[in-house]
Amino acid sequence: MCLGCGNSSLAVELYNDGFKNLVNTDYSPVVISHMQSKYASLDGVEWIVMDVMDMSEFPHASFDVVLEKGTLDALLVGEKDPWRLSSEAEDVVDAVLKRVFN
């Protein structure tokens, strides 16, 4: 699973490298719609509108690997110091990571 896939070509690159069962999520319906249309020919690749704060659609242990390459950065964009997070930001990070683990 790729959290917050955006319009990245990562899923396509993984697919071309032999990974054929991929789930990509993003909170933007516009982005997901675009990616679904652009890569409709990739069998086994899913594009799903989803908020990382609610991944209840998937049962525990649904994925072997979860990739996050910028989603947490986007969630923490308002932080003044990335090395000293506010308690609210720590709660967000903790919540996302717990949802990924579960």
Tell me about this structure:
By secondary structure, this protein is of the alpha/beta class. The protein has one domain: Rossmann fold (3-Layer(aba) Sandwich), CATH 3.40.50. The chain is built from four helices and four strands. The protein has helices at residues 10-16, 29-38, 71-75, 87-101; strands spanning 2-3, 22-26, 45-49, 67-68. The longest helix is centred in the C-terminal third of the chain and has 15 residues, at 87-101.
Topology (elements, then pairings):
Elements: E1 2-3, H1 10-16, E2 22-26, H2 29-38, E3 45-49, E4 67-68, H3 71-75, H4 87-101
How would you summarize this macromolecular structure in one to three sentences?
With 102 residues, the protein is an alpha/beta fold. Helices cover 36% and strands 14% of the residues.
Rg of Cα set: 14 Å
Kindly report the spatial arrangement of strands forming the biggest sheet: 1-4
Distance between the termini: 13 Å
> Which word captures the global form?
globular
What is the averaged pLDDT score?
A: 92
Q: How many strand segments?
A: 4
CATH class: Alpha Beta
Query: Could you name the CATH topology?
Result: Rossmann fold
| Helix and strand sequence | EHEHEEHH
